[in-house]
Amino acid sequence: MTKPLILMTDAAHYDVVYSINPWMQPDLWAKDALGARRSAWRASAALTQALEAAGADIETIPGVAGLPDMVFPANAAVVLDGTALMARFRYPQRRGEEAEFLRAFEDLQARGLIDRIVALPAGLRHEGAGDGLWDAGRELFWVGHGPRSDAAAAGVIADVFGKPAQPLALASERFYHLDTCFCPLSGGEVLYYPPAFDTRSQSAIRDRVAAQDLIVASDEDAARLCVNAVCIGKTVVMAKAADRLKAVLGERGYRVVEVDLAPFLLSGGAAFCMTLRLDLKSQPAASRPQAVAVREQHR
Predict the structure, then answer these.
(1) Which residues lie across from 13 on neighbouring strands?
(2) Element containing residue 238 per DSSP (H, E)
(3) 77 Cβ partners below 8 Å, 6+ apart?
(4) Which of 231, 197, 193 is nearest to 214 (CA)?
């Protein structure tokens, strides 16, 4: 079986020097910037080790001075079946990342790690896998919009990848990307934080996911950014979690691996934000896991 291939960015240039979401605390960071940077380097290395121990191969690209949030490559692109749909950022503080990530993806393409690079239509904003989560069991994209990404991007994602895309409206600037509050798991469950969504989107989630497969994150789980997790098989890598969530996931057969990602929480990012799967593949409906197909037929 091919190992998962995950893109990460070297954390050497990570800083918290501006605020574009409610999590970001540049004043707190500045009190001990050198110590915070050292903690961030250690945390990034620990995350890399945890992902490798879970069975992943890691492809690391260099960060760029002056682009501290480049450490969150989940926002760089939506990737499926060898195609990368490149992001376009809302805030000017992050727009410099677009050219840098494009160069990195062109290198990945030259090395055969991806096949095709696609640009968003002019004027459209969408911030990559942060707002475009592939659900392998249901063979669809969950597409967040509101704080960072445009609602119209769901249609573009559906067209580019030839897969259904379910829009979800985010109702809070605190949960500014879908990956901060929504996590499809390998067994068909979805870990999510309902208050992050408007009423219509909560209904859309319940329509597509059977009740027994919905795992509701608590306020504490959301505040720790534990929903921003990476699922590799039956291993879930996440920030330091509460005992309740670990127990719930354990009862479902998952092994929770915690990493202290406190320096990155100060930017509003955690495990998923710091990664981007490059190897995700879709599959024909006939090949889908039977349990998931049955759940969908009876939802």
Answers:
(1) none
(2) strand 235-239
(3) 84, 85, 86, 87, 101, 105, 128, 129, 276
(4) 193
Does the active-site annotation cover 273?
yes
Q: Does residue 157 contact residue 78 with C-beta atoms inside 8 Å?
A: yes
Q: What is the pLDDT of residues 55-110, one digit of tens each?
A: 999 999 999 999 999 999 999 999 999 999 999 999 999 999 999 999 999 999 99
- pLDDT tens-digit readout, 235-289: 999 999 999 999 999 999 999 999 999 999 999 999 999 999 999 999 865 444 4
Taking the mean position of all CA atoms in its chain, how far away is CA 82? 18
Q: Say which of 181, 226, 231, 273 is annotated catalytic.
A: 273
Q: Which residue has the tokens 């699922």?
A: 231
| Spatial contact of 260 and 44, defined as CB atoms under 8 Å apart | no
**Do residues 108 and 59 make contact, with C-beta atoms less than 8 angstroms apart?**
yes
Active site residue: 126, 145, 177, 183, which one?
A: 177
Q: Which domains are present in the chain?
A: 5-282 (3.75.10.10)
Q: Is the pLDDT of residue 291 over 90?
A: no
Structure tokens at 37: 């940077």
Of 78, 79, 62, residue with least CA distance to 70: 62
pLDDT on residue 294: 30
Place of tokens 């209904």: 203
